[in-house]
Design a protein that fits this description.
Oligomer: single chain
Shape: extended
Keywords: ATP-binding, Helicase, Hydrolase, Nucleotide-binding
Protein name: Helicase-associated domain-containing protein
InterPro entries: WYL_dom, XPB/Ssl2_N
Largest sheet: 5 strands, mixed
Distance between the termini: 15 Å
Number of strands: 26
GO molecular function: helicase activity
Pfam families: Helicase_C_3 (PF13625), WYL (PF13280)
Strand content: 5-15%
Structural class: alpha+beta
Length: about 900
């Protein structure tokens, strides 16, 4: 007797196809479609059911590249099931396309891995939901531009009319409509007979077909069609679908197209082309300069908001007026100002204070961030940018409800943003070192990798007149979709942050992303700039021109590979950030410990200043100009600000003398002494507010000044004035009048105010909004697969027949019987002795019911200790929580 193994039977359903996969293949499926594992399915049948739901299929289709999506679209218009050769013909045409033939196995493999296609190569089946979504219909035109089949188009046609069409087409009449439609379909799918039929049709009639061949396949006709249309209708080359509407049958269109389902098949991703090449040293230096500017800009923004920033709108976010003020203060366009504001918010350095009069201010994390080395501060900003879903480029636009989108406001999260940012930078890493990409080629590559969802079918929606021509796309399109805009914004933002320099990815940017070293320049450039094109082809016997844009690429010269898009773990990201900081640090300018004081009451900082010096000088002077060197100007107001912060005149003199490479100019020394002499002579406190001064003549001067009228002052005593204004308003009013008052506490002590005293309560950075369920990690995948396998074993394995039942009764029913406590205990004790595996129903302490496959080890004290196949570990279960138990029959081979 032969012991040869019988070939495995072809799967009859998606669940059976999944049952034939090993654990690695199931893990790949759950990793590519994480929505299938949330929550963990009970068994493979439930997994298959979930994989076929509309929401899950739409999400999976949206994540396919253009060629794989075109393959699925071709399967949707093929027979069900379709052999592999038929699918190849729909994509490669009658004459064949070597590039398509080489790429198609990978596309089919991807569709199989994602459970969108199942079955052997001789019986490829697209899951039903995907076929419904991608099949052509009048309401949802297919991106292929194809119409219904002859059978579908003639479904409502009278038998007599069908026989007339068969006879006019030169076919013998039949006895029933079904055989007539089959004969007509056989004619339209026979290349030689179809060519002969078209040869009898006048050119003006063929011109009508040419206008419909690439879609949309529908056209409008009058009640009395012209002769050129009547010839087509009589032969079934056009079929009526509704009064005044005709359609080009799918079989006819495929013949006219030379067997192709798409106008443009793109099996190879378009290359990312280098627009310019710069020396790597120049790229790194430029990027480092941009990185330093980014740090300075964020610091300047938050310093401007140190004492309380703009108010929060009632609907959330920053007002247009406040954004304009911020843009003026940073000397940048408003859209760029929105980017810096959003970046500080994403990094957790900026938040609202949560007060009744809610305002934006720096967070306590900002003080910690400022004390870190410059390179580490940069990695904090860029890491926040990479992972943030908030999209500053949308500021100023409108949402779905036509509401304006404001900076820091709601509605700016786009879950695709982190993926696009990383993918764009990965493509840059695939170019030669120092090469800046052409932005259009980057956008085109991303559109190929993730085509925008079609909104109107292949060639628009609705029906078109048969007298007007139209073209069809391939499901891609170059519209200004969100991902294209994200691509442009990513390239601009990476340049502003210093991830790129002159458009090319820098060494520290590459390290931050955890990407490998670039490929050799000559090889990468040869791959990126190859001009290879596949030849055009037309169908045999075809009198109509078949327009086919050949794919860029060739099996012998494939497109340049790009670095894999991987999401780094926290530990990997920390290591990459440290490596980037090490590369960037030597490129940044060293902080200086000195300035150059000048006689015109200015100080010049020839470079970045050390933190204590920069902080003190920022209080003592105002920034007049920025650039390679920063110019500070000393004014009475700036000196008074330093005195308000608790500094004495002697401290200021000593500070300037210690940090100036030039002698302290006499005008500056006089300015400090003069302001210090008058500082605090007036005291303002809270009554509502009052002013007190030992010099009553000065109070008389204040009362006599017309500018004091708005303060509502009146004399309470020779040395005290009361005011209707609050203390802050009174301080500001007196300072505008030229005085130098000091605030005092209720105890009469001078209040010292720091410039950075305004901070929000501790705030965490905003959490990114994920695009669907997160990708499960290896531990969760392993546990989920164990649970699914165990549940599938329990639901499909035959149960042992009980006494009095026929053999096999209940086998494979998938229903767990309920058992009493005595029967449950007896079954458990017997399984301990025999080592058998049991299927149990269990309800935990929270009331959640589940089914498990266990191998009991010990039963005592009302508990059973067993090896749980579902969890792959030994567990203990209370017997009173087990609702039912059944023995699984041993497999006999």
């Amino acid at each position: 007797m032969s012991t040869e193994e019988k070939p495995a039977a072809a799967p009859r359903s998606l669940a059976e196809a999944l049952r034939g996969r090993d654990d690695a293949e199931l893990a790949a499926l759950l990793r590519s479609r994480p929505d299938l594992v949330t929550p963990v399915p009970a068994d493979l049948t439930q997994l298959a059911t979930r994989a076929g739901t509309r929401a899950s299929v739409v999400r999976a289709l949206d994540r396919l590249d253009r060629f794989t999506l075109q393959t699925a679209q071709a399967l949707a218009v093929a027979a069900d099931p379709a052999p592999y050769d038929e699918l190849l013909g729909l994509l490669a045409g009658d004459e064949g396309d070597r590039v398509v033939a080489a790429a198609l196995p990978g596309a089919v493999r991807t569709l199989r891995e994602q459970a969108l296609v199942w079955g052997a190569d001789d019986r490829l089946r697209l899951v039903r939901t995907a076929r419904e979504l991608l099949s052509p219909s009048p309401q949802h035109p297919s991106p292929t531009g194809l119409g219904p089949t002859v059978r579908e188009a003639t479904a409502g046609m009278s038998p007599g009319r069908i026989q007339e069409i068969v006879t006019t087409a030169g076919l013998p009449s039949t006895h029933d409509p079904v055989s007539a439609v089959a004969a007509l379909t056989g004619l339209f799918t026979d290349r030689e007979r179809m060519a002969a039929l078209l040869a009898e049709v006048p050119f003006e009639s063929l011109d009508v077909l040419e206008r419909l061949v690439w879609g949309p396949p529908y056209g409008q006709v009058t009640a009395d069609p012209a002769t050129r249309l009547r010839r087509l209708l009589d032969r079934g080359l056009l079929l009526p679908t509704a009064p005044g509407t005709v359609v080009l049958p799918r079989e006819v269109a495929l013949h006219l197209r030379g067997g192709r389902a798409h106008l443009a098949v793109e099996p190879v991703p378009p290359p990312v082309v280098a627009a310019a090449t710069h020396p790597p040293r120049v790229v790194d230096a430029t990027a480092a300069g941009q990185a330093y500017t980014a740090l300075s800009t964020v610091e300047e923004l938050l310093k401007d908001w140190d004492e309380g920033g703009p108010a929060v709108l009632r609907s959330g976010g920053l007002s247009v007026r406040d954004l304009k003020r911020t843009a003026v203060a940073l000397d940048v366009p408003e859209q760029v100002a929105a980017f810096w504001v959003e970046l500080a918010y994403a990094a957790g350095l900026l938040a609202s204070d949560g007060e009744a009069d809610e305002r934006y201010a720096a967070t306590p994390a900002y003080d910690t961030w400022r004390e870190r080395p410059a390179a580490e501060r940069w990695t904090t900003l860029v890491t926040a940018w990479l992972t943030a879903t908030r999209t500053p480029g949308l500021v100023g636009g409108r949402d779905a409800k036509d509401h304006s989108l404001s900076a820091l406001g709601p509605g700016l999260d786009r879950s695709a943003a982190p993926e696009v940012r990383r993918r764009v930078l990965a493509l840059l890493a695939g170019l030669p070192e120092g090469a800046a990409p052409d932005a259009g080629s980057v956008s085109e590559r991303l559109r190929w990798e993730r085509p925008p969802r079609a909104t109107g079918g292949a060639a628009g929606s609705g029906s078109g007149s048969t007298g007007s021509g139209t073209g069809a796309g391939s499901g891609g399109g170059g519209g200004d979709d969100l991902r294209s805009r994200l691509t442009r914004w990513t390239l601009a933002e990476a340049e502003m942050l210093g991830v790129t320099g002159r458009g090319a990815l820098s060494a520290h940017g590459r390290a931050l992303l955890g990407m490998p070293a670039p490929a050799p320049k000559t090889q990468a450039r040869a791959q990126a700039e190859r001009p290879d094109r596949a030849p055009e082809s037309t169908g045999p016997g075809d009198r109509l021109p078949v327009h086919h844009r050949p794919a860029a690429g060739h099996p012998d010269f494939p497109a340049p590979p790009s670095p894999a898009l991987t999401v780094l773990t926290p530990a990997e990201q920390a290591a990459s950030s440290a490596a980037a900081a090490r590369l960037l640090a030597p490129q940044l300018p060293e902080p200086l410990d000195h300035v150059l004081l000048q006689a015109d009451l200015t100080a010049v900082a020839p470079g970045p200043l050390q933190r204590p010096l920069a902080d003190m000088l920022g209080v003592l002077a105002d920034v007049e100009s920025k650039g390679g060197a920063t110019v500070y100007r000393f004014t009475p107001g700036s000196v008074r600000r330093a005195l308000d912060a608790g500094r004495a005149a002697t401290d200021l003199h000593a500070f300037l003398a210690a940090h100036s490479r030039t002698p302290v100019p006499q005008p500056l020394a006089y300015l400090i002494d003069d302001v210090a002499r008058r500082h605090g002579h007036l005291r303002v406190g809270a009554a509502s507010a009052y002013v007190r001064c030992d010099d009553d003549a000065m109070l008389n001067e204040i009362l006599a000044d017309k500018r004091a009228a708005e303060l509502g002052l009146r004399r309470l005593a020779p040395t005290v004035l009361a005011a209707q204004a609050d203390p802050a308003g009174l301080l500001e009013g007196l300072r505008r009048m030229g005085f130098a008052p000091a605030a005092e506490s209720a105890e009469g002590d001078v209040l010292i105010t720091r410039a950075d005293a305004r901070r929000t309560p501790p705030r965490t950075a905003p959490e990114p909004v994920p695009e669907g369920p997160p990708v499960p990690d290896d531990t969760l995948l392993a546990a989920a697969i164990r649970a699914v396998r165990a549940g599938d074993l329990a639901s499909t394995a035959p149960l042992k027949a009980k006494a009095g039942e026929a053999d096999g009764a209940g086998a494979g029913s998938g229903e767990l019987p309920r058992t009493g406590s005595a029967e449950t205990l007896a079954t458990m004790q017997a399984a301990v002795l025999t080592g058998e595996t049991l299927w149990i129903g269990y309800v935990n302490a929270e009331g959640a019911a589940s089914q498990r496959v266990i191998a009991p080890v010990r039963v005592e004290g009302g508990f059973v200790t067993a090896y749980d196949h579902t969890a792959d570990e030994v567990r203990t279960y209370p017997l009173h929580r087990i609702t039912g138990v059944a023995e699984l029959a041993n497999d006999e081979s």
